[in-house]
Design a protein that fits this description.
alpha/beta, TIM Barrel, globular
Length: 321
């Protein structure tokens, strides 16, 4: 969620994340329908960061980060699956780690190494002259969205930025997603962009950080909910470790989650852990997924399926034009 923490051959071998989930199985892109259906029955974690200590092969952007910023020092797909597997999660949306900036190589290699398991949200330089070509190349490689972040930028200028305009327009034309990592103070900017680009699908990370100060401020939650008037805006119910009282089992977040469910509907919400941050200190993976799976009494089985799998499948695992 924040930037204080982040091979072509997976850990030196051909072991895939799928094989970690189902020993003896090596499901590939051309797998039979029966195997596809079995794999789809698991949950989807819609927001995870992975990185590797192999800095020679996958260097970080040393202009902005140092090795000491990588906490933990490693969070590879193998480490991720040890957290995901017990919770019934078998697919994951990888979010490009800020350590790497616009070099999406590690994420793309992990997508290629484990077909059908990972989808990706990349980072591109929206001011690049060849922006459309870069987006198309990433989409072919399995990227289904592009993160935009307030880090180092004046968000209010996004509305008038010609590069941002091309990014939103290209995403809409290709069926890709814009994924803002923003604060509640930025909701008005996103509202303006959604008015200007109504066909662009937007996925807001971590409730737009409502509650990050330690309390759920009603005006901020209201501002998030007003974005529901745009039919293509989705929200990640995620990063529970960082919101509200920041203590598992996170029951204090239930009223906010319920409000967002009521306004957006389960079909526009998706659960995510924001690992590895969700599995540090007093926090754990099971407490995150259990809040949606077990603690939201108002949800029907169908609603729960949408939030834990179906929305993310529709948004991040479907083919693009």
């Amino acid at each position: 969620m924040n930037s204080r923490m982040p091979r072509r051959v997976f850990l030196g071998g051909a072991v895939s994340a799928v094989s970690l989930l189902r020993p003896g199985k090596n499901l590939r892109a051309e797998q039979p329908d029966k195997a596809q259906a079995a794999k789809r029955s698991g949950w989807i974690d819609a927001h995870v960061h992975v990185w590797t200590p192999e800095l020679d092969r996958y260097p970080i952007d040393k202009r902005r980060y140092s090795v000491s910023d990588m906490k933990p020092a490693s969070f590879t797909p193998r480490q991720l699956m040890k957290e995901c597997q017990p919770a019934g999660v078998d697919r994951v949306v990888l979010i490009q780690m800020s350590f790497y900036q616009t070099d999406n190589s590690y994420m793309l290699d992990m997508i290629q190494a484990h077909p059908g398991v990972f989808s990706g949200v990349g980072i591109v330089d929206h001011r690049a002259a060849d922006l459309k070509a870069r987006i198309n190349k990433l989409a072919v490689a399995g990227v289904r969205g592009f993160r935009i972040s307030r880090r180092g930028q004046d968000v209010k200028h996004w509305v008038s930025d010609s590069g941002m305009a091309r990014l939103w327009e290209t995403a809409a034309g290709s069926g890709l997603n814009i994924c803002p990592l923003i604060n509640p103070s930025d909701f008005d900017v996103i509202d303006q962009l959604c008015v200007r680009y109504p066909d662009t699908r937007v996925v807001i990370d971590h409730f737009g950080r409502v509650g990050i100060t330690g309390e759920i401020i009603p005006a901020e939650l209201d501002a998030l909910c007003r974005l529901a008037r745009h039919k293509n805006v989705h929200v990640k119910t995620s990063a529970f470790y960082a919101l509200g009282k920041k203590k598992p089992p996170y029951r204090d977040l239930v009223p906010m989650i319920q409000r967002v469910i009521d306004v957006f509907s389960p079909q526009r919400l998706m659960w995510a852990s924001d690992c590895p941050y969700q599995v540090q200190g007093k926090h754990d993976y099971e407490s995150s997924i259990a809040l949606i799976r077990d603690q939201m009494d108002s949800l029907s089985d169908t609603d729960r399926n949408w939030i834990l799998r179906d929305t993310a499948e529709k948004v991040f695992f479907s083919k693009v034009s």
